[in-house]
Design a protein that fits this description.
single chain, globular, eight-stranded mixed β-sheet, alpha/beta
Length: 220
């Protein structure tokens, strides 16, 4: 049962234990797993801001560090998409058996390289992913084959002034064959630091997830 309280969790993945923060509002219609980008973590103010808006809409959130602190110091590890995908596999498997999240649909919210990992995972295990949102992400790093295989409804949100990443997102968007949308937030740069732009991105994400994540079954 969801308690609505924030809880630190640990998820085994290979030889490491990943730390995350799980929060499930009562009757949550689903849970959104945040795939952090390179150099980010579950403490990211931007991701926590987005997560709070998702919870306002009745969605659970799990912000997990896909890399250990030591691994995150290694630049190559940050761009090891295959490793990030494996960590997502283990985390989603954990969500499927955890009491608070068992039986609820899972959405993935990715930023930077985390977006590529989210899309690769969605392509590999379509039955486990109900929707994907990328914010300022690098979906192009998922690769052509994975992008063409994604079945989960996918939303790409990019800053209008983040011109290089916008171009990469447009290329990735053209390859997606699933239900999809591309939102360009005017005046926003890569980190959505401009006033009001992150909230716009978060509201779009919340609408996408509430549309595509199934409500939790009624409790007897």
């Amino acid at each position: 049962m969801a308690t609505g309280s924030e809880r630190l969790v640990r998820i085994d993945s290979g030889e490491v234990s990943l730390e995350g923060m799980l929060e499930m509002p009562p009757g949550a219609r689903g849970v959104v797993l945040f795939a952090h980008g390179s150099g980010s973590s579950r403490h990211s103010p931007r991701n926590n801001f987005v997560a709070a808006i998702l919870r306002e809409q009745g969605l659970g959130t799990l912000l997990v560090d896909l890399l250990t602190p030591a691994e995150d110091q290694d630049h190559e590890r940050r761009f090891d998409i295959a490793l990030l995908v494996q960590r997502l596999h283990d985390t989603v498997r954990w969500l499927a058996v955890e009491e608070a999240t068992r039986g609820v649909s899972v959405g993935l919210f990715g930023a930077s390289t985390g977006a590529a990992a989210a899309l690769q995972f969605a392509a590999a295990v379509p039955s486990r992913v109900a929707a994907v949102v990328s914010r300022g992400g690098r979906p192009d790093l998922a690769g052509i084959i994975s992008l063409e295989r994604v079945k989960a409804p996918t939303l790409l949100v990019v800053g209008g002034d983040d011109t290089e990443v916008l171009e990469l997102n447009e290329g990735a968007f053209a390859l997606l064959k699933c239900e999809k949308a591309l939102i360009v937030v005017p005046g926003a740069t890569h980190l959505f630091e401009e006033h009001g732009t992150l909230e716009i991105a978060a509201r779009h994400a919340a609408q996408w997830f509430t549309r595509h994540l199934s409500p939790a079954p009624a409790q007897p």
